[in-house]
Specification:
single chain, mainly alpha, two-stranded antiparallel sheet, 2 strands, rod-shaped
């Protein structure tokens, strides 16, 4: 967009210069007309540039929120997997609350590119399908099955982030 703006500015400047040489101002009324025309064109150009800058900033902020959201979801998937690995119910609950908090991040999807929208919607779906309790086997929580499930979710989350052009962090937790 900046190259286009520079190109348009150059064309307008050359056109104004050529018109000024072709029909130079003969009196003060002509000078006033030239100044008014130049001022009008500069005002229109400035308005277009300001609109573009505001739009670009809004898109940048939406991308930053999407990246923060993806990072939070991934961090909590890793934390859930670790809590299951060490069989810690308290850590499990903290990670579930962290995942719920990540889902509260309000992202303007209309400001994002297609890859980011797909990433956010897919991660939201993945995060909302997390069950509240581990499956049980003979009345005991089956942390092993849950650990594998969260490992798969974390792996999928990293893949989705890569597809959107992001570089997700390596595994956040180790046993």
């Amino acid at each position: 967009m900046k190259k286009v703006a520079i190109g348009v500015s150059a064309v307008v400047a050359v056109a104004f210069g050529a018109a000024f040489v072709w029909k130079p101002p003969a009196n003060s009324g002509d000078v006033a007309g030239w100044v008014q025309a130049l001022g009008s064109i500069l005002a229109i150009g400035l308005a277009i540039w300001l609109q573009y800058e505001a739009r670009t900033e809004k898109e940048r902020q939406a991308r930053m929120l999407a990246v923060a959201f993806a990072g939070q979801v991934l961090l909590n998937f890793d934390a859930l997997q670790m809590a299951c690995r060490i069989r810690d119910g308290n850590r499990l609950e903290v990670a579930r609350k962290g995942l719920a908090k990540a889902l509260e991040i309000d992202i303007e999807l209309g400001e994002l590119g297609v890859d980011y929208v797909a990433m956010v919607l897919t991660l939201r779906t993945m995060a909302t399908t997390v069950p509240s309790q581990p499956t049980s086997f003979l009345g005991m929580p089956d942390y092993g099955a849950w650990e594998g499930g969260f490992g798969n979710l974390a792996h999928d989350c990293r893949g989705i982030m890569r597809k959107a052009g992001l570089k997700p962090p390596d595994k956040g937790f180790s046993p």
